[in-house]
Write a structure and sequence with these properties.
- The structure holds 4 protein chains of 4 kinds.
- Helix content of chain A is about 25%, strand content about 25%.
- By secondary structure, chain A is of the alpha/beta class.
- Chain A has 2 domains: about 140 residues, P-loop containing nucleotide triphosphate hydrolases (Rossmann fold), CATH 3.40.50; about 60 residues, no CATH class.
- By secondary structure, chain B is mainly α.
- Chain B has 8 helices and no strands.
- Chain B has one domain.
- In chain B, helix 3 packs across helix 6.
- By secondary structure, chain C is mainly alpha-helical.
- Chain C has one domain.
- Chain C has 9 helices and no strands.
- Chain D is mainly α.
- Chain D has a domain of about 25 residues.
- The longest helix of chain D has about 45 residues.
- The termini of chain D are far apart.
- Classes of the chains: A alpha/beta, B mainly alpha, C mainly alpha, D mainly alpha.
- Chains in contact: A-B, A-C, A-D, B-C, B-D.
- Chains B and D meet through helix 3, helix 4 and helix 7 of B and helix 2 of D.
Chain lengths: ~230, ~250, ~220, ~60
């Protein structure tokens, strides 16, 4: 049955006068003639976590993949960071953010240590964190030599979170960080987020669940997704 | 912004392109039929038989223009493909993808008429003649481009991917042609040239040029027809498209 | 943090992955050996016939062997999300694409280059011609990998991209086949294969310098 | 005008007319394709319009 056309999703956000650091204007996205995102206004300040809530398919993941440049923008939209133009295709900006998507970016046949070692060489490693340190911080201390493929879904997610800890980035784009995690895992995510924003970092995360990040400074936005 | 770039920019908007091409198609179709009729008449009735090949050379009037068209359309496809990729203009992507089937058709015509001409000339339907072989490889490239466009779901990314493949093919076509030419002369020596390099008698030249023009006019209006339908298909939720075909849909985008 | 180090990390990661699935590395070589034994069975053991068809047959089988493992080049990376990380990393994607092609060639192209002479001996080629064949394969298989990678990057997003890949890529292999086999045939007939080998080398330079940009563009489309 | 000789084409009739037949048939198919596709598209859009109207009324 042909799906009827719904209302396009748009994110209403209070345009506070505060120092706006990551600002997105008039973002628009259409897939196979269904408008998914329209006039998205979004600000993300330093030291803040913004949680975007919305049902599946409401465009949350698309929004994040647009901001990271993984999905090309159909109409050019404006993203500015500290007043300068933030272009996800430009290496100077790419250095500044990390992305964690549904696919975690892990190689099943490599061990946990090898996976992290690769990202340490490839994306760069924070001076104050070692591969083993990151694994321990994420509760994977005994697993450095076991292959990522043999870990449980929750443990694989922790390994991906270890990468966030290991590699430097001012902005985190997290797509459903809470999925596949038990209560303890969720507190781990909150701890990492708290540490990240305490170092003046910022994070944009999506979730369709009910969990709210227990961090000192977070804001919630609702994608009023189109009603299928 | 001088007049030309302004016009080119306006042509990029689907609605303007739809209306503009709509007005153009009838005239192109008319011109095509006139030129085609004249060319065929001159070629089949008026032009004298060739002293060597007798009347079988009349196949030249469709074989050669089709061969020219198979390459001409490929280049046209790549040009509009590049415009589509670089400036992300939907109309350019659509025109590129609309050209591919027409180009493949002309390539197929070239191959079949080449074989039918080769039979009386060389005694067999398929001869690994340099031009026919390159034409065959060109057909495979066309099929690859069309196939890739059909295979990818999202229309916009499909057009981008197929355009990139077409461009890669464009770089390879001269190399393929050169290598096949070199290969053909290596193995058989230069076969008798189908079209003969000797000066073509004017009474044969004019119909040939007329047919070349007719096939270009055919391509022009057919690609616009195809592009309009594809545009309607992709913009079917937009109000301008629905107005253009006499529909009004509650809840459609502006 | 430098580009060479990142490229090296990517190359070593891919090689380590390939070594973990060593059986998969053998498929191109086993394919070459098995299919190469089919032809004499099909055409008869007559020595002169085998010698005369050897250049073309061995080269075509080597080409198909290289194509077998092409689709693995990006498919796993797309599935597990590592391709996303490559694209949004600060490193230029064409260079990373070249590293992937290099890794694939080391794993599937090089073994074919090493094993083909063995097959050539079975086909009764002289040692000098075998040398030329190995050189033509050494120059030719990287071209196959880089052009093939363009087809893979465009079709990796498709559900059954593999079968479709050959349709996209084979027409582009025509010049490689022509000049590579011409070189071997020339040496077989006592002529100098230099001309063909130089042209093959020229194609290799063209492929290695231009293909990565098309691969990068293709990957960006397949990811979106 | 000797039609008999004309169609014989100096003995090459089958090849010449064969070629022209292929040329015409292929181009007719190419010509007709967009028209057939437009008719199918119109039908589909009309169905979608009827559905959308019924949905917006209910």
């Amino acid at each position: 049955m042909m799906k009827p056309l719904g209302q396009p999703a748009s994110i209403a956000t209070p345009s506070g006068p505060r120092k706006t650091l990551l600002q997105v204007h008039s973002l628009f996205f259409q897939r196979n003639q269904l408008t998914i995102l329209e006039n998205v206004q979004l600000t993300l300040d330093a030291g803040e976590v913004v949680l975007i809530r919305g049902e599946n398919g409401s465009g949350k993941s698309t929004l994040i993949r647009l901001l990271t440049g993984l999905v090309p923008a159909q109409e050019p939209f404006e993203v500015s960071l500290d007043g300068e133009r933030f272009d996800p295709g430009d290496p100077r900006c790419q250095v500044q953010f990390q992305y964690l998507g549904h696919n975690l970016g892990l190689k099943d046949n490599l061990t946990c240590a090898e996976n992290l070692k690769f990202y340490a060489d490839f994306l760069g490693r924070r001076a104050d964190v070692t591969v083993q340190g990151a694994l321990n911080a994420c509760g994977l201390d005994g697993y450095q030599y076991s292959e990522a493929g043999r870990l449980s879904a929750g443990q694989r997610k922790r390994l991906a979170l270890a990468r966030l800890l290991l590699c430097p980035a001012r902005i985190w784009f997290l797509d459903e960080p809470y999925s596949n995690l038990d209560a303890e895992g969720i507190t781990l995510v909150d701890r990492l987020l708290q540490r990240h924003i305490s170092e003046d970092g910022r994070a944009l995360m999506t979730s369709h669940g009910t969990f709210v990040p227990q961090v000192s400074n977070h804001r919630e936005l609702e994608i009023d997704g189109w009603t299928p | 912004m001088n007049k030309l770039t302004l016009w080119f920019h306006k042509l990029g908007s689907p609605e303007y392109f739809y209306r503009f091409s709509g007005k153009l198609i009838p005239w192109l179709a008319l011109a095509c039929t006139v030129v085609l009729g004249w060319g065929l008449y001159r070629g089949l009735f008026v032009a004298p038989p060739d002293y060597q090949q007798g009347d079988s050379y009349r196949i030249i009037f469709i074989h050669v223009p089709s061969a020219w068209m198979s390459l001409f359309i490929y280049v046209a496809m790549c040009v509009s493909g590049v415009v589509g990729i670089v400036w992300r203009i939907k109309v350019a992507e659509i025109v590129a993808m609309a050209s591919a089937p027409i180009g493949a058709a002309f390539t197929a015509i070239t191959l079949v008429t080449g074989a039918l001409w080769g039979r009386p000339m060389w005694g067999s339907y398929w001869v690994w003649d340099a031009r026919l072989t390159s034409e065959l490889v060109l057909l495979f490239i066309y099929i690859g481009v069309i196939g890739l466009y059909q295979a990818i779901e999202d229309r916009r990314s499909a057009a981008r991917a197929a355009s990139i493949l077409a461009l890669v093919g464009l770089v390879n076509i001269p190399i393929i042609h050169f290598s096949v030419e070199w290969w053909a002369t290596l193995h058989q020596g230069s076969t008798v040239n189908l079209m003969g390099e000797n000066a073509i008698h004017p009474s044969m030249l004019w119909p040939l040029l007329a047919m070349a023009l007719a096939t270009k006019l055919f391509y022009a209006f057919n690609v616009l027809q195809r592009a309009r339908v594809m545009l309607l298909d992709q913009e079917s939720n937009k109000r301008w498209a629905q107005r253009a075909i006499g529909l009004d849909m509650p809840g459609s985008a502006a | 943090m430098s580009l060479p180090r990142a490229v090296l990390a990517l190359l070593l990661r891919d090689l380590r992955l390939a070594l973990r699935r060593r059986s998969e590395m053998l498929t191109p070589v086993l394919f070459l050996l098995m299919v190469a034994t089919l032809f004499p069975l099909g055409l008869g053991p007559d020595r002169d016939l085998l010698v005369s068809i050897a250049p073309g047959v061995i080269w075509v089988i080597s080409l198909l062997a290289c194509m077998l493992s092409l689709s693995l080049m990006f498919y796993a990376d797309l599935e597990d999300g590592t391709l996303d990380q490559l694209i949004i990393s600060r490193w230029p994607l064409p260079v990373l694409a070249l590293a992937k092609v290099g890794a694939h060639w080391l794993v599937s192209g090089l073994p074919v280059v090493l094993v083909a002479p063995v097959v050539a001996v079975a086909y009764g080629l002289s040692s000098e011609t075998i040398g030329v064949m190995a050189l033509s394969l050494l120059l030719g298989t990287p071209i196959l990998s880089s052009i093939g990678a363009i087809g893979v990057s465009l079709s990796v997003g498709l559900r059954r991209g593999g079968m479709f890949l050959s349709l996209l890529v084979l027409p582009l292999y025509v010049p490689v086949i022509i000049f590579a086999t011409a070189a071997v045939t020339a040496s077989l007939e006592g002529f100098s294969p230099a001309a063909s080998l130089y042209l093959l080398a020229a194609m290799l330079v063209l492929a290695v310098t231009t293909a990565p940009f098309a691969i990068a563009a293709g990957l960006r489309i397949s990811v979106s | 005008m000797d039609w008999q000789a004309f169609f014989a084409m100096g003995g090459y009739g089958t090849f010449v007319w064969g070629s022209y037949a292929v040329f015409t048939v292929i181009l007719l198919i190419v010509l007709a394709a967009p028209m057939v596709k437009k008719r199918a598209l119109m039908k589909e859009l009309k169905q979608r319009q009827a559905l959308a109207r019924r949905r917006s009324k209910s």
